[in-house]
What we know:
The protein has a seven-stranded mixed beta sheet with strand order 3-2-1-4-5-7-6, with helices on both faces. The chain is globular. The protein is an alpha/beta fold. The protein has a single domain (3-252), classed as Rossmann fold (3-Layer(aba) Sandwich). The chain has nine helices and seven strands; from the N terminus they run H-H-E-H-E-H-E-E-H-E-H-H-H-H-E-E.
Amino acid sequence: MDRADARRWLRRWDAQQERYLAAREERFRAMGDVLESVLRPPRRVLDLGCGPGSLSLRLLDRFPGLSVTGVDHDPVLLKIGSTALGARGGRIRWVDADLRAAGWDAELGPGAFDAAVSTTALHWLTPRELTGLYQRLAERIRPGGVFLNGDQMPLPSGCPRLRAAAHRWRQRRRSGTGPSGPGETWEQFWRSVSRDPALKQEWVERQRRYPSHHSAESNLTPEQHARRLRAAGFGEVAVLWQHLENRVLVALR
Length: 253
């Protein structure tokens, strides 16, 4: 796969994601705002479940002195991202690691990070896996650093009518179009990937790693995330940006 093809795949990925997240770019900007306000500015950031590097790219463009370590376990997305973006002059490093496994951070190298970020990724982890991840992050983020999780987090169970309204909004969004025009569905995107000869090796490996379609395992509210983060050693935890159930949860180390 050459860089031009990889960049086309990255654009398709972004369009497909925007079909489901109307405020995706606004969420990215909000996460950058938090990093700038808390760290003034960040220097070393860990991107968890980085995919093809959509969030990493935006942070690198915003903060000229930033370096990012992107971690993911999807060989297709890592191939697209590492080919499309390269190392950006040594500012981004790509790591193939499973966040669900013990010792997932073994390849990160020594030293602490100013921040860890994640967007639309950690809902794949079970509550138990998230607890372990948060405990490890508390050791990898320096004191005074920050963790940001941008993801879908449901409203409290005591708000059934509001939860139903948010669900109806998401369903309408998924059957509509993205802000840049009609976007592929998740299923259409992956069917196209499976037919691309340049991604055949990565597609076969992806099928080996994920033999069945993994559905969302975690449906934790922000409060349930916050309890786990505080128990792991984080201090202040709060939602600092929200669009319906699309939120950015921030935890200070």
